[in-house]
Amino acid sequence: MQDNSDFEARLKTLSPVAHQVDAIAAAYAAGRRNGRRTLNGWRGVAGLAVIVAIVPWVTQRQTTVVPPKLAIAVPAPAINPPAVEIEPTVSGNMWQLQAAVLERGLDGLPNTPISPVRAVRDSEMY
């Protein structure tokens, strides 16, 4: 029991510390609580906006209307190439052909028939 009485005597010598309110710490804590409420409010609004934006995008149906392609068959105009007479000016010998080109330039080359060219419209490509 002596230990307890000694302990009690020591406790009686202690005086309580005067409790002082730190105004700065109290204001900081109050501002932090208020800011947390505001921040959580904005987070909720932002989350709701994201949900409102995503839901219609996810739930939309793929209803793309493809217009039918109209195909109208129109016969191509007949192109009759003019009759071209091929007169070989030089035989098929390479040496003679080279000599003719050196002598007369491009006019020394033999005429070659060219197949007729038909105009292609963009509507025919698709």
What does this entry look like structurally?
The chain starts with a helix and ends in a 22-residue tail after the last helix. It contains three helices and no strands. It has helices at 2-13, 23-59, 94-104. It is mainly α and 126 residues long. 48% of the residues lie in helices and 0% in strands. The mean pLDDT is 79.
| Order of helical and strand elements | HHH
User: Which blocks of ≥5 consecutive residues have pLDDT under 50?
Assistant: none
Which range best describes the helical content: under 10%, 10-25%, 25-40%, 40-55%, 55-70% or over 70%? 40-55%
- Rounded Rg: 51 Å
Figure out the total of helices: 3
What portion of the residues fall into strands of 2 or more residues?
Answer: under 5%
Determine the structural class based on helices, strands and strand pairing: mainly alpha
| Shape summary | elongated
Oligomer: single chain
Give the mean pLDDT.
79
Query: How is the biggest beta sheet arranged?
Result: none
Count of beta strands: 0
